[in-house]
Amino acid sequence: MSPAVVFMFAILVLVPTSEAQDLKQSTCNETLYRDTCAQSLANSTATDVKGLATDAMRALVAVGENALKTIEAAKGSSKGSILDHLNTCVEIYKSTNNHTLDAVKALEASNTDEAIIQVSAAMRVQRSCDDGFKKDSLKNPVDDLHPLWVKQANVALTICTLANPTGGSVPVGN
């Protein structure tokens, strides 16, 4: 193969990769949790912010699904009020995942306003998982799940807002 062909091939392969990396980096720089953003979009092949928003939402679904598995495992060794609260958390994470999946569908249909509404709703619902434990002064055995979910949700919401052509605002959630 001639050096010119190798050079042209390298340009065709490396330039889009570099542009995709620049897009990810500049988008993640707009988020509150840059490291979480970079990790969740590490394998993204998106070429625009809407694609990154979709990938960030899918990462949020994965975090929620992992949380559900962890909660289900914790239920096996729990009883009484803790088991009741874990059952509530299962329902809450299922609901948040449904909202997030609806956000993915909205993004795929180019409806960023609806996607923002859905992920915001997920964030409001998700907050209540710990409420029962706190009310009863109990230690939540899956306490470490919430901060990761919140970070990923904030990343997804921020990127979704960046992808919104109408310039929607980012609702505050924690």
Descriptive notes:
The protein has about 170 residues and is mainly alpha-helical. It is about 75% helix and about 0% strand. The protein has helices spanning about 5-30, 35-40, 50-75, 80-110, 110-125, 130-135, 145-165. α3 (about 50-75) runs antiparallel to α4, α3 packs antiparallel against α7 and α5 (about 110-125) packs antiparallel against α7.
Poorly predicted parts: 5-16, 169-174
Helix coverage percent of residues? over 70%
Largest sheet composition: none
Rounded to an integer in angstroms, the radius of gyration calculated over CA atoms is 19 Å
User: What's the overall average pLDDT, rounded?
Assistant: 84
- Total number of beta strands: 0
Distance between the termini: 56 Å
Helical run tally: 7
Dominant shape: elongated
Element-level helix/strand string: HHHHHHH
| Percent in strands | under 5%
Task: Classify the secondary structure makeup into a structural class.
Answer: mainly alpha
Topology:
Elements: H1 3-28, H2 34-40, H3 49-75, H4 80-108, H5 112-126, H6 131-135, H7 145-163
Summarize the structure.
Helix content is 74%, strand content 0%. The chain is built from 7 helices and no strands. 35% of the residues are buried.
Features:
single chain; 174 residues; mainly alpha; 0% strand; disordered C terminus
